């Protein structure tokens, strides 16, 4: 009996020691990691460096956001300067909007950068701080600008002896490309105030003037057979609405649009098929063509069938664009 009592007391004492030992140990609380100061307050830019911060789900996405932050800051400076015409005075064009400038600036890519710092904010977010060397960025951008200018010059020279439609299309495209050249030049000027911006602004101005001159000199003469008269009126209105000139004098130098139609009205079928053939020539050179098939219900008179077809043709032109209908790829 005494042995059993001693054994019981020993077991009881062991349990007390076990539970008292467990109770004395305190649970480990994860140490809180403070968010670095640079995440909350971005370092100030200097004449030598531009900083950008990005926060995203992955480190790679955070890096992209940080580089976009740098471009965004440059874009704001450029947009402000462009709006106030402080550095593009004399080169401002109503055809170029601040939204165009902002869009083109956003397309600029930065390759010369350094990841200054990175930090995992949580298991869901990373923060990255990048530092861009303005001098290296400027040198790379300057090379891109010169290459764009050279490409524009080459394409304009190659199109000099082409037909009027080809010249117009090339000059229109190069005029649009000049907007990218202007945007990049504005960014380059923000990075380096000694950059000769006027050299590129003058070039942009010359290319746009050449494009406007080409557009104003582009004339169309429409020739149509008896059944194509209504279709000719539709094409004429659409050309004029798009800013092109249409002449009634076939002796003037102009791009000639020839229309003729064929149909199966004589077969007396309930559904009439009309084929409108379009041929576009410039100095006897074929520059575009198209054949459209229009289906209409049989009516009492041939003229009413063609009038209805012309209404539907007008809807097609408005939807697809006059350049696609003529097969010449122009659109102001």
Automatic annotation (TrEMBL):
The lineage of its organism: Bacteria, Pseudomonadati, Campylobacterota, Epsilonproteobacteria, Campylobacterales. PROSITE patterns: PROKAR_LIPOPROTEIN. This is LPP20 lipoprotein.
């Amino acid at each position: 009996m005494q042995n059993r009592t001693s054994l019981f007391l020993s077991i009881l004492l062991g349990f007390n020691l076990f539970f008292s030992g467990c109770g004395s140990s305190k649970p480990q609380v994860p140490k809180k990691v403070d968010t670095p100061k640079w995440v909350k307050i971005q370092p100030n830019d200097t004449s030598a460096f531009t900083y950008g911060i990005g926060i995203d789900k992955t480190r790679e996405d955070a890096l992209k956001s940080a580089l976009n932050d740098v471009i965004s800051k440059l874009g704001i400076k450029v947009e402000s300067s462009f709006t106030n015409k402080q550095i593009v005075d004399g080169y401002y064009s109503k055809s170029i909007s601040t939204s165009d400038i902002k869009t083109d600036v956003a397309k600029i890519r930065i390759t010369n950068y350094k990841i200054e710092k990175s930090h995992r904010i949580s298991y869901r977010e990373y923060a990255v701080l990048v530092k861009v060397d303005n001098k290296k960025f400027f040198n790379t951008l300057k090379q891109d600008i010169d290459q764009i200018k050279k490409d524009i010059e080459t394409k304009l020279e190659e199109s000099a002896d082409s037909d009027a439609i080809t010249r117009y299309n090339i000059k229109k495209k190069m005029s649009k490309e000049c907007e990218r050249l202007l945007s990049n030049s504005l960014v380059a000027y923000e990075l380096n105030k000694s950059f000769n911006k006027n050299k590129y602004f003058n070039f942009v101005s010359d290319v746009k003037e050449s494009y406007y001159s080409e557009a104003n000199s582009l004339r169309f003469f429409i020739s149509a057979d008896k059944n194509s008269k209504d279709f000719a009126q539709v094409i004429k209105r659409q050309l004029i609405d798009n800013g092109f000139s249409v002449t009634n004098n076939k002796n003037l130098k102009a791009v000639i649009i020839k229309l003729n139609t064929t149909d199966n009205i004589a077969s007396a079928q309930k559904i009439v098929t009309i084929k409108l053939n379009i041929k576009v020539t410039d100095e006897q050179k074929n520059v575009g063509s198209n054949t459209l098939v229009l289906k209409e219900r049989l009516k009492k008179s041939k003229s009413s069938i063609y009038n209805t077809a012309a209404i539907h043709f007008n809807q097609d032109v408005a939807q697809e664009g006059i350049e696609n209908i003529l097969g010449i790829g122009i659109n102001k």
